[in-house]
Structure formats: C-alpha cells, structure tokens
Amino acid sequence: MKRALLLPLLGVLAACGTDLAQNVPVPTTQPQQVTSTTSVAATVPPAPQPAKDGTCPYLATGFVAEANGQRVPKVKLSTDEPHPACFFYANATEIQLTVRVYAGEERVAKLIVNEAAPDGSQPANSPTGWSGGYVSNDNGVVYAVAKSDAAVVVTTNQKQSIKARRIAEEAIKGLKL
User: Fold this and answer.
1) Distance CA 83, CA 94 (A)
2) What's the rounded mean pLDDT across residues 132-147?
3) Considering only CA atoms, which of 109, 113, 131 is closest in space to residue 42?
4) Backbone angles phi, psi at 4, to 5 degrees
C-alpha cells in the first residue's frame, strides 16, 4: 500500500521539478577554457652518418687537405638537410675530418656544442660572434661553436686545435651563417 501511494507522489514531484527547471535562467557566459602549455625538452638529433659520395657544398676539399695536413682521396656526405655533414677521408675507410652543421632551434644548437665540447673544455670564440669550446684527446680535436640557432662542430684526427678552428671558420664562411 505504501508503494501505491509513493509512485503517484513521485510523478507529481517530477512534474513540479520540470516547471522549476524551465523557469531558472540559463547563464549566457561561456565557461572559460583553460589551456596549459608544456615545454618539450630540446633533444640533440642523432649524429650524422656518411651516406653518399659527394663534394662538400660549403668547404673545398683542397682547403681541408691543406689546413688539416693530409691528402683527401674521398668525401662523403650525410643526408641531413639543408646542410649535410661532410666526411673527409684519409684513405678508403678512415675519416680524418668531419664537419657537422646544425641550423634550427637555438636551444638545440647550444646542446650540440655542449655535447661535443662539454663544460670544462677550452673556450672557443672564433669566428667573431660564435662561442663554444674545443677538446683535445688521443684521437684528435673537436672544435664546436654556436651562434643563435646554428652550430658547427669540426672533428679532426690531428692534435692541433688551430687546424680544427681554421676549418670551422672556413665552413661558417662557406655556409654564410
């Protein structure tokens, strides 16, 4: 019996609730949309690899042979765009000098230089306006500099940093960076 009385009463209450909901004003403002931004950590692209025979578009083979003090019988290029890395060989299989070029984000350019010549390396600031460092080890020298959104890293099998620096300066001049 209680159930029989409750069902009609619920129907009446539901009907009343509908009228009340119809008389309630609807807000005219749109809810605020919250946008959150997350910064993605800059990552260094993988080291370039020699992929095809070719001529370095920004550095003359004759200049490299003279500056590095070794004959260059072969040059290979990476597939990187717009500036491929250039690999200058001492013989059929041994690389004597590599020039890696990066143009893109300033954070990435600095990371490339810091990876090649980490904190504690000798400071490098040539050509004017470029900065970075150089490191000497048993395998040779790495000279790495950045300016704005560009980085140039020269790795040579020679022990004298002057050779790597001269080649970096010539590459930057040839790249017009």
Assistant:
1) 22
2) 96
3) 109
4) -65, -35
Q: Beta strand 131-137 with 140-147: parallel, antiparallel or unpaired?
A: antiparallel
- The pLDDT score that the predictor gives to residue 89 is 98
The HSE-up count of residue 14 (CA atoms within 13 Å, CB side) is 6
**Cβ atoms within 10 Å, residue 13:** 9
0.85 cut: is pTM over it?
no
- Cα separation, 72 vs 105, in Å, equals 33
- DSSP one-letter string for the chain: -HHHHHHHHHHHHHHHHHHHHHHSPPP-SPPPPP----PPPP-PPPPP---EE---SSS-HHHHHHHHTS---EEEE---SSS--EEEESSSS-EEEEEEEEES-HHHHHHHHHHHS-TTSEEE--STT-EEEEEEETTEEEEEEEETTEEEEEEESSS-HHHHHHHHHHHHHHHT-
Task: Measure the CA–CA gap between 171 and 160, rounded to whole angstroms.
Answer: 18
Q: What is the pLDDT of residues 85-99, one digit of tens each?
A: 999 999 989 999 999
Q: Identify whether 50 is preceded by a cis peptide bond (ω within 30 of 0).
A: no
